[in-house]
Design a protein that fits this description.
Number of strands: 34
Strand order of the largest sheet: 2-3-4-5-1-32-31-30
Radius of gyration: 32 Å
Distance between the termini: 132 Å
Shape: elongated
Strand content: 25-35%
Structural class: mainly beta
Number of helices: 6
Largest sheet: 8 strands, mixed
Length: 528
């Protein structure tokens, strides 16, 4: 195992905990950036171009018939092949959190439409699902199982917001574990069925799951209800006959109490488990090999890489599988770098040197062929996720297509939970709706002072009628911190009054003329 540090040349602030990596034709793409996408890359999907231990992010594009895909962090993600032995595949994305902390319940299917040396175009389709639709969640897993010539998706675990009927003022936006139900999703026919199994007593999130044929293995995970990491190892076996599917669960010995672990596949039936946490204050630096058989799994400890002192002493770490035995790991660098949200990144290769050379040679051949084609109290679990992707391989892309980080705005400055003024006291954990128009986010209004900035309507002591008036009328608003400016701009200019001359009193004869009735006179006829 080898550990190599990489330097992020541009857009390092977009690589934050919760991102996902997608692999198409040997190239890795980032999905789930920090903040909302900007005009430099409206899709929010980036190519990770790695050359000479330097990482650059270049924008990708969507086809015209694609649906809108928000930047989702901590989603469930897996690879879907059109056939079991086919080279064509897609990615399924379910759930995740948006930059506004909204949780998604949608299912998307992403595929590569065209790829050239300068441009990659994707197609994203939203799937309509009926039946027992899983609730919105994040920190869960999705796997594909094959049985009797059929394929289905298996969704399990995750976290979601507390139901509205159970919310209190103190914990309005708190999260809870999802119910420990297993969902089978048939993407071809758009139906979903849930199963309640007695082996699952508590909900789990940020667990590890691997699948082979008709079996899914679930390892570890964190439970908010008990604040524990499950040491159990579950085996889900799915049978897909002509009638209703059958789902059975068994508890196997030899589990590992770990959460937020990262898994990469190094052989057809062999995986490597690295990272995660074994307690709230301790990372897990031990590595394990998972060997899958026909309905069996063997977990053995393997030699760990030579961790750097920065990795050993940092409190949190995050990353994602790059596929084919490689991982992208990140650790906070706020104490050592000028940029507060900058991170250190490493590429960990779990395969041997000979195997890496063979894969690099194969990747170079694939790359040459494809270039000819036309076309402040965050839980530790919330800093990691488990997802499958693939290894990064470089190809020539002009620097003119590089994403411009200057167009990015910090999510902390443009979000709903900012400190809008000196008197702002809104807290995401204790906030409750104040206006009738609010649901899960506070109402905000733009102050027109200078370049403009957003403030909470509640912090400005605005009544609901005034808030509605300002939102409907085309007028400028100025917050309480700019009262002088407000008076100067909103007070109308003083207009000089015209002097009116006094009217002269009327004489008696003129007054009589006005009061004496006028006799009408008619002209005589010219001809009688």
């Amino acid at each position: 195992m080898s550990l190599q540090m990489v330097s992020v040349i541009s857009n390092s602030s977009l690589l934050q905990p919760g991102f996902s990596l997608l692999n198409f034709d040997g190239h890795v793409f980032l999905f789930g950036q920090k903040g909302w996408p900007k005009r430099s890359c409206p899709t929010g999907v980036f190519l990770l171009d790695i050359k000479k231990n330097e990482l650059k992010m270049k924008p990708a594009f969507f086809s015209k018939d694609s649906c809108y895909l928000p930047p989702l962090r901590y989603p469930a993600l897996c690879m879907l092949r059109s056939k079991e032995e086919s080279d064509e595949y897609q990615y399924i994305i379910h759930g995740g959190k948006t930059p506004n902390n909204d949780i998604s319940d949608k299912i998307y299917v992403m595929s590569l439409v065209s790829k050239s040396s300068k441009k990659a175009t994707f197609q994203c389709i939203e799937k309509d699902i009926g039946g027992d639709v899983p609730e919105a969640r994040y920190g869960h897993t999705i796997n594909i199982v094959h049985s009797r010539g059929k394929s289905m998706s298996v969704i399990f675990g995750g976290r979601t917001y507390t139901p509205l009927a159970q919310r209190t003022t103190e914990k309005w936006n708190s999260v809870v574990d999802c119910s420990p139900s297993v969902f089978l999703v048939d993407l071809e026919f758009g139906c979903c069925t849930s199963y309640i199994l007695p082996e699952f007593q508590d909900g789990l999130a940020f667990h590890v799951s691997v699948a082979r044929n008709d079996t899914v293995y679930i390892l570890g995970g964190h439970s908010l209800q008990n604040n524990t990491r499950s040491p159990s190892l579950y085996r889900l076996k799915i049978d897909l006959p002509l009638g209703s599917p059958s789902v059975t669960c068994s508890i196997l010995p030899g589990g590992i109490a770990v959460s937020s672990g990262i898994v990469t596949q190094i052989r057809d039936t062999e995986f490597v488990l690295i990272g995660g946490y074994q307690s709230d204050s301790q990372k897990r630096l031990v590595c394990n090999t998972l060997v899958l058989g026909d309905g069996t799994i063997e977990i053995v400890e393997r030699e760990s890489p030579d961790w750097t002192p920065d990795i050993k002493h940092c409190r949190i770490w995050f990353g994602c599988d790059m596929g084919k035995g490689s991982m992208l790991l990140g650790i906070p660098g706020a104490n050592k770098q000028v940029i507060s949200d900058a991170n250190y990144f490493y590429i960990l290769k779990c395969k041997g040197a000979e195997e890496d050379k063979e894969e690099e040679l194969t990747a170079q051949i694939c790359s040459q062929t494809s270039s000819e084609d036309p076309g402040d109290s965050t839980p530790l679990e919330d800093s990691e996720e488990f997802c499958f992707s693939a290894e990064a391989n470089s190809f020539d892309v002009d620097d003119a297509d590089t994403y411009n980080e200057d167009d990015e705005e910090d999510e902390s400055e443009t979000g709903y939970w900012i400190t809008c003024s000196a008197s702002c006291n809104l807290d995401i954990n204790t906030w409750v709706p104040f206006y009738s128009t609010e649901l899960n986010k506070p109402a905000m209004i733009l102050c027109s002072s200078g370049a403009g900035h957003w403030v909470h309507a509640q912090c400005m002591d605005l009544s609901e009628s005034m808030l509605l008036h300002l939102s409907e009328a085309n007028v400028k608003y100025f917050c309480n911190e700019h009262p002088d400016l407000q008076k100067g701009l909103q007070t109308p200019k003083k207009v000089k009054q015209l002097k009116k001359r006094p009217m002269k009193p009327l004489r008696r004869k003129a007054a009589r003329r006005l009061t004496t009735p006028v006799k009408k006179s008619f002209p005589r006829r010219l001809f009688e």
